[in-house]
Amino acid sequence: MMTEAFWKTKRLEDLNPQEWESLCDGCGLCCLNKLEDWDTGEVAFTSVSCRLLDGTTCRCSDYPNRQAIVPDCIQLTPQEVHDITWLPPTCGYRLVRDGEDLYWWHHLISGDPETVHQAGISARGRTVSETEVHVDDFEDYLVDWPLTVGKR
User: Fold this and answer.
1) pTM, whole model, 2 decimals?
2) Which domain holds residue 124?
């Protein structure tokens, strides 16, 4: 008898730590700097990545210590996932939150963490580190691909 995949049967709040971490597809999109319009609340993505994002692997270069190094790094929790409006449409946490299935390229489906990159979903090769761009120039790096790539 085959057991249904945990992300189809459990709420975010019910995931164990291993299941929670495995929902991350390794795209790196949540590690892109975003700009918020103070008047409208609209959030825009930039191609400027967090200083800790490894542009090749799209993983945090110091995940265990990230919040000590980058104080405004957001620790995703079930509550945060429910509250954050800017999660990319391809985000595994967002998909599970919304009762949708994961995409074919998600490593939990494909069995290969490289498929997110092969499918062109990730930030790989598309970013510049925040250490190389002055914060006043972030507006010059606005992009829409994190919100459009992978649309069904």
Assistant:
1) 0.90
2) 13-146
